[in-house]
Amino acid sequence: MSAATLLQRIDAVLPQTQCQRCGYADCHAYAQALADRAADLNQCPPGGEATISALAQLLQRTVKPLNPIHGKHAPRTTAVIDEAVCIGCTRCILACPVDAILGASKLMHSVITSECTGCELCIPPCPVDCIVMVPATPDNAAEKLTRADLGRRRHHFRLARLARDRAERAQRQAIKNPPPTSNTPQPDARRLAILAAVERVRAKSKRAPE
Length: 210
Hints:
By secondary structure, this protein is mainly alpha-helical. Helix content is 45%, strand content 7%. The protein has 6 helices and 4 strands. Helix 1 crosses helix 2 (27-35).
């Protein structure tokens, strides 16, 4: 099995909540660490025993209990925003790894329930504690795969959007502050040229006949 195929198969086993509880930036990063044997297979609380068993079989490793350092396995939940308390700070929007929160600055925010992965990353940055996690409808096996695929795709879309935004900001900054061309003297070079001209004038005045 090629390294790329192994990485893809590991990533397909993970629940794609993008919650970072495993200690990595997202599920793909954890999958890469597993493929590189840099991480253990019991670091995914959302996946629980089912994910550990699937990873153990795929990677031919020994099944082990979920490492409590990374949290406890629990039924899937989804985030809900108390719209009466929300102040529209956008911090939860910036934290959501799948762009499942709608809103704008100083306007009420709302969670797209069907797209929320239950990662809980929106809770810590909220300054008014207006976000709570509520139980979600349990998924069957097929629904879990569909939900994981949705979480993966939306996270990839978000990463692509952020990269595009950074590129556009850099382009605008370059247009606003273009680098000096070779024909444009630098401030230091211009100052030196002026000083040199002044010295030439002084030299001529000294050589002039009285």
